[in-house]
Write a structure and sequence with these properties.
The protein has 431 residues and is α/β, with parallel strands linked by helices. 43% of the residues lie in helices and 16% in strands. The strands form two sheets. It has an eight-stranded mixed sheet with strand order 3-4-2-1-5-6-7-8, with helices on both faces. Strand 3 and strand 4 (76-81) form a beta hairpin. It is globular.
């Protein structure tokens, strides 16, 4: 058994399980952009709150492989609702968000009746879930805002402009911060936004990073079949949207394959609204045989690709959104001991440090050069991989985030009579 495969201790989670500081608490978590348990950050929050003694219910959308309207998994009640489609464009997002708010409101009432809750945790995007939480605040419920994305910057990254809709995102952000009793920030940049733009006091903001569960993300036997007979394998994990910069990565691949003549295969694990367009771009660049699109894939595929790759890439465009955001893929690459190439972004460097090489912002040619440099130097790849693994084990793994999450919930403790008791009805299995 290698060091990467050995189970690691979880002292903070063990202490929460023993002390049960959340005993008697009932929590409702609302997340809109991913189903559970697929959303790893939110699922780890759910399991941590459960381990600490809380009753936890979740409202989330359905997704491929997660279509059941109700499931109870590891003690967590999961209520899923349909969404009309995967939105593209401003009108599509308005339709998606409107449908989601309707389902979230009706399911929140169902959870209140069946299980009761004293605290609502809203996970953005979008910054609209406060509309569901506000009526319950009038009943004494507490509102925790789990700040995953900075929506004004995300809007500008997606649509490349400002305007009245952008100003509306700023207004919704202010209202969400105003409604929140406690804010959970994913990094220090977001913590500063909560204080500067949101007007929150330092005592109301807690940094809980999206640390990987290091006993779940485990190396498996490499499978070089993913390289399709080529000398090198590059891995990418994540959503395929406009702001992820995968078009820049494909241009870097064109330079590596057709100009530098490298024998290299790229595997892209994930789905999203831009996947079809990116597949078409890959064909136009003559990369059909050098790029594999897996779509949204199970953990078995993800783990195998990350265990087999020579290096991993994060081509997120440098813009105000990506500069201040911590990307889950970076943490996962480091958990698997993978060296990384990414563009120069503030929080990307904070997370990865010496585990990454940094290309000039949005420069596909420089990204290709950094990838080529790393592919040519196995010793450098090994040193960077070890540095990343050490950092994520020491500082960034999920167990280290447990105290901050529980401290946030302690700060959001409701009045003793705030929780509504469930009616005692059995769950019917319908949402």
């Amino acid at each position: 058994m290698t060091a990467l495969e050995r189970a690691l201790p979880t002292p903070h989670l063990d202490a929460a399980r023993a002390g049960r500081p959340m005993a008697g608490r009932r929590v409702l978590i609302i997340v809109e952009n991913l189903p559970l348990p697929f959303d790893r950050r939110v699922w780890q929050e759910c399991l941590t709150l459960r381990a600490a003694g809380a009753e936890v219910a979740v409202i989330c959308p359905k997704g491929r492989g997660f279509e059941a309207p109700y499931e109870r998994i590891e003690g967590v009640h999961i209520y899923r609702h349909p969404l009309p489609f995967e939105a593209r464009g401003a009108a599509g997002y308005l339709l998606e968000y409107g449908a989601a708010l309707w389902h979230e409101a009706r399911l929140a009432l169902k959870v209140l009746r069946r299980h009761g809750f004293d605290t609502i945790q809203a996970c953005n995007p979008p910054d609209l879930i406060f509309l569901v939480a506000w009526p319950f605040k009038l009943l004494g419920k507490r509102f925790v805002f789990d700040h995953h994305d900075i929506m004004p910057e995300l809007f500008e990254a997606k649509f490349g402009k400002r305007g009245w809709l952008w100003r509306l995102t700023r207004a919704f952000e202010r209202l969400t911060f105003r409604a929140a009793d406690v804010v959970i920030s994913t990094n220090e940049s977001y913590r500063e936004i909560a204080r500067a733009r949101g007007g929150k006091r330092a005592s109301e903001v807690f940094v809980v990073r999206s640390g990987p569960d290091l006993n779940r993300l485990r190396r498996v036997a490499p499978n070089r079949a993913w390289a399709r007979g080529r000398d090198h394998l590059i891995g990418y994990v994540g959503v395929m949207g406009a702001q992820e910069g995968i078009d820049l990565l494909l241009e870097a691949m064109r330079l590596l394959v057709h100009e530098r003549g490298l024998s290299v295969q790229l595997v892209l694990v994930g789905g999203g609204p831009e996947r079809a367009a990116l597949e078409a771009l890959s064909a136009r660049l003559g990369l059909e045989d050098h790029v594999t699109f897996t779509g949204r894939a199970p953990d078995e595929v993800l783990f195998e690709v990350l265990s087999s790759a020579d290096l991993c890439v994060n081509p997120d465009r440098v813009n105000p959104m990506n500069d201040k955001s911590t990307m889950n893929k970076i943490m996962e690459y480091m958990a698997f001991g993978q060296p990384i190439v990414q563009f120069e972004v503030t929080e990307g460097r904070v997370s990865a440090g010496p585990a990454s090489l940094y290309a000039r912002p949005n420069d596909a040619a420089d990204m290709a050069a950094q990838i080529a440099r790393l592919l040519a130097d196995p010793a450098l790849r090994a040193r960077m991989g070890r540095a990343g693994r050490t950092r994520v084990v020491r500082d960034l793994g999920w167990d280290g985030q447990v105290p901050a999450l529980l401290a946030a919930y302690a700060a959001a403790a409701p009045a003793p009579d705030a929780a509504v008791q469930p009616s005692g009805k059995n769950c019917s299995g319908t949402a």
